[in-house]
């Protein structure tokens, strides 16, 4: 190739020399410059010029800005697109931003919301009136057609490198269709999600047209992969609106905003936000539900901010129902067409409840813990937080009214299912990696489908979903970042303070430090799991009664302060139950339907898994295995009773016996360390003495093993597990004696049950993490 160009340029060089000679003859003044005197000199000059040209092209390519066109169709998608637009605008050296506005933004009945885009200081490159009025199915189809007629001229004029399209609206389908046919790359936001109505079909159609995807949840990512999308072009970013709402919802003037929209007499958490849209595949039923919702709200007699429905087919009929019932004149209602997103955040955050079928209820409201009543089928399949109560068959006013009674005024743990506030930096980084020289034709990755736990290929997709685990022990307080696979990414350890105030202060400090570190470690924290000694109400996140080892730790609500400080959901349970959960997810209990875990440490505890579920009991004291009585007149236990397993086989019981033998000078045998020089006598000294042939020590351990074995036999005869797992520092010592006792004394049907020692190094931390990683959030009413 170079040789052919060289020959062509050599011929040109000969012509240049001929012109120079004729110019000299005619007396013309020639432009100064080097003149090749022979073919070799000319060849090297040509090669130098080619290298300079290539270097300049590479330099231009390196400095070329990515031309990004963001198209917004309505008030809802602008709340998701605006943070990205601000991010692009803030990086003028990397990007050029073009804004196209169409759809209901430009309709007076829907608030002329294009003005808020102008108020945000964005230059709107094109305004396209694409809505055919009528608010029925035919009008939606005609609107898509009108958009397809008008979009080619705009896209041809703007010539973007990439078009950013959001969601599942019919306007967005027109945008994606036009861009795909005009060979413009498409980035689709919030693909892969599942909901009700025609929106699902539109959303998935846009995903098939799009070249790149920025999705909000791990489940959505897996749906896209299952749809044969290339996993290297999928970014798990989170919802961009979370960047704004998590940063802005703590405003000092929120009461001013509430009073501005609802009146001076309204109080925080004492009003309702209502937002119901038509379901285009079942318009008649959705209008009926809307009417029942209005009746329930009127009867409930609370201040209510109600927003007009969107422009989908059926919205006109819904507005007629609203006006027929006099909602706009009702003293308890304020009906509005549009609320700026920053103010809407405050209204949802501080509401007593939100009701309707808007995606905001199942997505954004969870970040504040606001109670939500989701009506009908429009959001069927959406991932939701525990703050959402579904009334799928909303066929009576009483059912909706009862749901309001159940939800109004409650507060739930903050949920970050849809984002952690860092979506925009991820999306901008993703845009910067797009290679405009790669083939435009998208390819599909047909089965086998990539599984969720296989690593991705590029670093901006490699965020590890993780949990923050907290273990409150009698001596130490430990916090760890733990990945979905059970890897301890980082661990923090401090001495457990003696008072409640200093303990809570230290917990919050350590958790905050871990959350900050998680960002740098490329870990996304999904929630916080707390493992603690004592009796725990996991439903309320309250420690009811603590062990004597942890002082000032009874009747403590530990969930609320951690959730409020970190804006994360929090789960709490007893350390024995956590050990069982750890085995179920990461250890010998994985795939086992019924098993028992017994912790053998300072005390004796454990957890019971029955039919794959953890047993808590009616008063949360199930699986207090250390306090199973194996003797009526045995040694005194710390619980106040006698003859408990813990009084025989715990580390404290063995230490007590070791001290007794030491005081009687019956512990030491040849080969042992001089105990007089040791700081204190412990259970380890007793075990070492037995190994070296001390008959007294052997007798103590034999009795302890017998007591533990008999207690486990009682468990086998009551719940009949298929496996017993011993955990803790004494597990390896007790495994053989316990198996022997079971073989000798258990019923024939239970003698074959296997006793294993745990392979997990940190069962309490892993169990606390598993509560977060395995928690299912959906509820149905």
From TrEMBL:
Location of the region described as Disordered in the Swiss-Prot/TrEMBL record: 1-36
GO MF term list: ATP binding; hydrolase activity, hydrolyzing O-glycosyl compounds; metal ion binding; N-acylmannosamine kinase activity; UDP-N-acetylglucosamine 2-epimerase activity
Lineage, highest ranks first: Eukaryota, Metazoa, Chordata, Craniata, Vertebrata
InterPro entries listed in its UniProt record: ATPase_NBD (IPR043129), ROK (IPR000600), UDP-GlcNAc_Epase (IPR020004), UDP_GlcNAc_Epimerase_2_dom (IPR003331)
List of residues binding Zn(2+): 627, 637, 639, 644
Keyword Phosphoprotein set for record: yes
GO BP term (any one): UDP-N-acetylglucosamine metabolic process
Protein name: Bifunctional UDP-N-acetylglucosamine 2-epimerase/N-acetylmannosamine kinase
CDD domains cross-referenced by the UniProt entry: ASKHA_NBD_ROK_GNE (cd24060), GTB_UDP-GlcNAc_2-Epimerase (cd03786)
UniProt pathway annotation: Amino-sugar metabolism; N-acetylneuraminate biosynthesis
Pfam families: Epimerase_2, ROK
GO cellular component terms attached to this protein's record: cytosol
